[in-house]
Amino acid sequence: MKTAICPGSFDPITLGHLNIIRRTANIFDEVVVLVMSNASKKNPMFTIEERIDMVERVVSRFDNVKVKHYGGLLADFAKEYNWPIIVKGLRAGTDFESEFQMAQVNKIINPNFETMFLTSSEKYTFISSSVVKEIAAYGADLKELVPREIIKDIEAKARLGRK
Questions:
Q1: 3-state percent helix, strand, coil for the chain, nearest multiple of 5
Q2: pLDDT reported for residue 42
Q3: In whole angstroms, what is the distance from residue 36 CA to residue 28 CA?
Q4: In CATH, which of 3.40.50.620, 3.40.50.300, 3.40.47.10, 3.40.50.720 is domain 3-162?
Q5: 129 is catalytic
Q6: Which of 90, 74, 85 is nearest to 28 (CA)?
Q7: Given the residues 9, 17, 88, 120, the one annotated as active site
Q8: Do residues 12 and 152 lie in contact, with contact meaning Cβ atoms separated by under 8 Å?
Q9: Which residues of the chain are modeled with pLDDT < 50?
């Protein structure tokens, strides 16, 4: 059975993330959506537990997708579970630069590690978790940006931030 890992901080998960997960689920027997803590991303909107909960609700529509959390290095997680295939979404050329660099570092840590890139569907190239948080802070409509299952979660957090 071929398993792929779709890692991310998912703060919050977007329709762009979901598109990559769905397409990965169509290619692989099993997909592990790995909700990661990212030390470089300060002040997350959601706790790790909230992000895991939101991702689980969103991906429950897929039979071959499960959610896990890991606080360490992605390459170590892949090695621990013997799941050496990582799938990352690319929105633009700038994504490729940073993701390619990370793929090379991961390959040094774990030589069996393979990173595959899926380009975003055109309608999702502008969506990022940062954009979602910015738009939510102003109370704008999120239905074209995030899965419907989590809109209320984001709106509630954004309201707290505006007080």
A1: 45, 20, 35
A2: 73
A3: 21
A4: 3.40.50.620
A5: yes
A6: 85
A7: 17
A8: no
A9: 163
Torsion of CA 51, 48, 120, 40, to 10 degrees: 150
Strand order in the sheet with 85-90: 65-70, 30-36, 3-8, 85-90, 114-119
pLDDT digits (tens, 9 = 90+) for 46-67: 999 999 999 999 999 999 999 9
Q: Token pair for residue 74?
A: 């992605």
Q: Which is catalytic among the residues 9, 23, 129, 133?
A: 129
| 159 is known as an active-site residue | no
Lookup: tokens for 31: 């997909």
Catalytic residue among 57, 91, 107, 157: 91
Domain boundaries, the chain: 3-162
Tokens matching residue 156: 């509630």
> What value does the CA radius of gyration of the chain take, rounded to a whole number of Å?
15
Task: Determine which helix (DSSP H) or strand (DSSP E) holds 117, and give its type and residue range.
Answer: strand 114-119
